[in-house]
Design brief:
With 88 residues, the chain is mostly helical. Helix content is 39%, strand content 7%. It has 3 helices and 3 strands. The chain has a 3-stranded antiparallel beta sheet with strand order 1-2-3, with no helix packed on it. The chain is globular, with a radius of gyration of 15 Å. 7% of the residues are buried.
């Protein structure tokens, strides 16, 4: 089941998050691909250990944990950090 959770971030927060992500150290997405998907995968990823990824991941986790709709729908025991990808 997919559940749309509106307004997790304000427009200004989204703008700040996008600026942080845009300035991040993007790398070839094939770093995390398997042998078969390497020929089809054509994206870039933000390294999980980068400062930008850690900052934005923390803000996403904080916003989700503070959102009653998310908490009641997901009942999260553990929230894994998101991966950030982009396609050109």
């Amino acid at each position: 089941m997919l559940l749309h959770i509106p307004e997790v971030f304000t427009k200004d927060e989204v703008k700040a998050l996008r600026q942080t992500l845009d300035a991040g150290p993007w790398t070839d997405g094939n770093i995390t691909s398997g042998h078969q998907s390497a020929t089809a995968k054509q994206n870039q990823q933000l390294p999980e250990d980068s400062a930008a990824a850690r900052e934005v991941s923390g803000l996403v986790a904080q916003a989700l944990h503070a959102n009653p709709m998310f908490v009641s729908a997901a009942l999260p025991h553990t929230l894994f950090p998101p991966l950030f990808n982009r396609y050109e």
